[in-house]
Amino acid sequence: MSEGLKLHFEVAPDDIAAAGNASTGTKNTLKKMGFPAAIIRRVAIAMYEGEINMVIHAKGGDVDVEIQPDRIVMTLADRGPGIPDIDLAMQEGWSTATENVREYGFGAGMGLPNMKKNTDEMRIDTQLGVGTTVTMTVYVA
Amino acid sequence: MKVQDLVRILDAKVLTGEDRMDTEVHSACGADMMSDVLAFVKEQAVLLTGLTNPQVVRTAEMMDMRCVVFVRGKQPPEAVVELAREHEMILLQTQRRMFTACGMLYEAGLRGEEGNR
User: Fold this and answer.
1) CATH number of B3-111
2) pTM of the model
3) Where along chain B do its domains lie?
């Protein structure tokens, strides 16, 4: 398969107010490229949830997006503490977010489950003390 | 219903988007938990909320919503209004509280997801 269009974003640590730049940037690019609105929304939601996670749980990180005609692959790599128990983290309602995060309307324990729900494939590679990489694919059916 | 109808019904102040008052909106949701908006909302065009941080505008933007109504007279910071302008999101502000604002709009014909089934 030929190389698709690649986007790269850096997610700043500790700045909830700025979280969303990568999702907005990707959304705008996909819109210009003419992808269906429903596909764009799934990508935007999954990526935005991921970005919020990178800011509130990790110390920011890198977001890479590869856009192919038939798929969009998002790779979110953070430098956070890692996830000790992925099954637990995937449970709706389970959250380790702080009160400060809840004031922004997040930290309900819906992020990872919602990322899985909006994507066709999701893989979590995590190493305690090193970081977590979430890879998500949305197929353009 | 058009956004100008929301303004009239809620006696709302237009914070930005004055030039798009004829935008059609058919459904709405009320939430202070953005996680829930991202997880449960499907095709709603209007978000009523008591939160005023930038993530409200970003969440609405990700969900392809057209208009955010701040209830209880909440005033968003200028940076939030500016972000909404960039994304062509309409911002309204009403003194009505959440329950009352939602009830008035429902009575006027605006529906939530359940009402559209």
Assistant:
1) 3.40.1390.20
2) 0.91
3) 3-111
